[in-house]
Putative peroxidase-related enzyme (Leucobacter komagatae), 207 residues
Amino acid sequence: MARNIFKERSDWGEPVNATGGQTEGALIMSLVPPLTATDAAPAAQANLAKIEKAFGTVPNMFAVVANSPAALQSMWGSFGAFSTGALGAALTEQIAVAVADTNDCRYCLAAHTALGSQAGLSAEELATAQRARAADPKTEALLQFAHSLVENRGKVDRGEITGLREHGWTDGQIVETIAQVGLNLFTNYINIALDVPVDFPEVPFQR
């Protein structure tokens, strides 16, 4: 994951407006301060080093989550586990942008659009995924399910599960999709609740 997926500047003291653009006036800061490897507790330092190696820097979200070594381990460990999962990198990012758009999470939408591009998805495919749509009916069925999970707080009906199976999704992939949505809710809520500054190129919402 290369540095060029980030904005050229990601300074915490940089003035930003509600959409992440530059503006004059009061600084908008995260409600919980970011930590560096030097500031963080020893229990968080190893994961911060892994994150910096993966991205070339520590994204703002992880720097904030580092305030809780347990939360950082949970988040980074989950990303690692899913990297070898049954859904693949591209579909993982399509799910992530669908969830982020549904939840109005600017940070996660920007981050996962950048990561989705690195996974080989086109700008059109990513924008379409924000609406839980896809050119491939099988993929769209899974994205619609992910959207339904968020909108209905997990209360999906049996017909949705049956429909996924009819599209060729395995029970393992269905379970993994639910887990992926859960991880994305975790990251969405961190970024929304703590107003984490976006350090990826920003992307407009589609819904």
Summary: The two ends are 28 Å apart (CA to CA).
